[in-house]
Amino acid sequence: MPTPKKKTSRSRRDMRRSHDGLSIPAMTLDTKSGEWVRPHRAHKGADGAYYYKGKQISPSKSND
Fold it and tell me: Is 2 part of any domain?
């Protein structure tokens, strides 16, 4: 198994790991329901209908 000739410095090691950190997902506040939703995704409202950008895109499923 190959072994490194020189020790990797703390600076070089940390620069390599600079992209490994986790970021908080973007969230927006829905104007109608007041819930936090992910942007650019359809979300299910309390009535069972799906909404996108504040507009209803599918009807609610009722148990008739």
Answer: no
Q: What is the pLDDT of residues 17-40, one digit of tens each?
A: 999 999 998 998 887 778 898 989
User: Would you call 7 helix, strand, or coil by DSSP?
Assistant: coil
Query: How many folded domains does the chain comprise?
Result: 1
- Euclidean distance between CA atoms 64 and 51, whole angstroms: 22
Asked whether the beta carbons of 36 and 25 are under 8 A apart, the reply is no
DSSP class per residue in 14-53: HHHGGG----PPP-EE-TTT--EE-TTS-EE-TTS-EEET
> Quick check: is 52 in a domain?
yes
Range of the domain at 56: 27-64
Residue 49 lies inside a defined structural domain of this protein: yes
